[in-house]
């Protein structure tokens, strides 16, 4: 009985995750299409437009990576945040005071350092792969 409830719960969670990912993917494709339409209608492409398209592409890649591995790569949201902050800096730089510019640039630097730390951790301390004998994977409660 407990095993059936656990299996049903896992299936339900998977369906909810997949539906959520489909909504995110669909919304991202619609937003990217709207941005392309806007660029075509205006007859120009600005750096801010390209950065926004890059953010959309990263979101699509993040959804794809999650579907491929079943895990959310931590670095991808960090990359998205870095590009979003760079886009914010580019768009609003004229209206910002020096301290805000420094704060946004510092936030980008901190996110870059976080990417390096996470990457170093993955290389230096790789995850154990679950064995075929243990369906629950490695014991990570240590």
Structure write-up:
It contains four helices and no strands. With 142 residues, the chain is mostly helical. The protein has one domain (2-124). The two termini are 29 Å apart. The model is unreliable at 137-142 (pLDDT under 50).
Task: Output the helix-strand order.
Answer: HHHH
- The percentage helix is over 70%
Q: Report mean pLDDT, rounded to a whole number.
A: 87
By DSSP (H or I, 4+ residues per run), the number of helices equals 4
Main sheet characteristics: none
Number of discrete domains: 1
Portion of residues in beta strands equals under 5%
Question: How many E strands?
Answer: 0
C-alpha geometry: flat
Briefly note the structural class of the backbone. Answer: mainly alpha
Low-confidence stretches: 137-142
Determine Rg (CA atoms, Å).
20 Å
Topology (elements, then pairings):
Elements: H1 2-42, H2 47-69, H3 75-92, H4 98-124
Helix pairs in contact: 1-2, 2-3, 3-4
Features:
mainly alpha; 142 residues; flat; disordered C terminus; 4 helices
């Amino acid at each position: 009985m407990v095993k059936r409830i656990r299996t049903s719960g896992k299936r339900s969670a998977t369906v909810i995750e997949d539906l959520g990912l489909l909504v995110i993917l669909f919304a991202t494709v619609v937003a990217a299409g709207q941005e392309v339409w806007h660029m075509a209608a205006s007859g120009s492409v600005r750096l801010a437009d390209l950065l926004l398209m890059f953010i959309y592409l990263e979101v699509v890649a993040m959804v794809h990576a999650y579907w491929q591995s079943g895990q959310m790569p931590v670095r991808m949201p960090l990359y998205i945040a870095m590009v979003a902050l760079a886009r914010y800096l580019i768009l609003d730089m004229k209206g910002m005071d020096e301290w805000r510019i420094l704060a946004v640039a510092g936030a980008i630097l901190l996110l870059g350092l976080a990417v390096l730390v996470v990457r170093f951790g993955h290389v230096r301390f790789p995850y154990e792969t679950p064995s075929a004998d243990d369906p629950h994977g490695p014991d990570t409660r240590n």
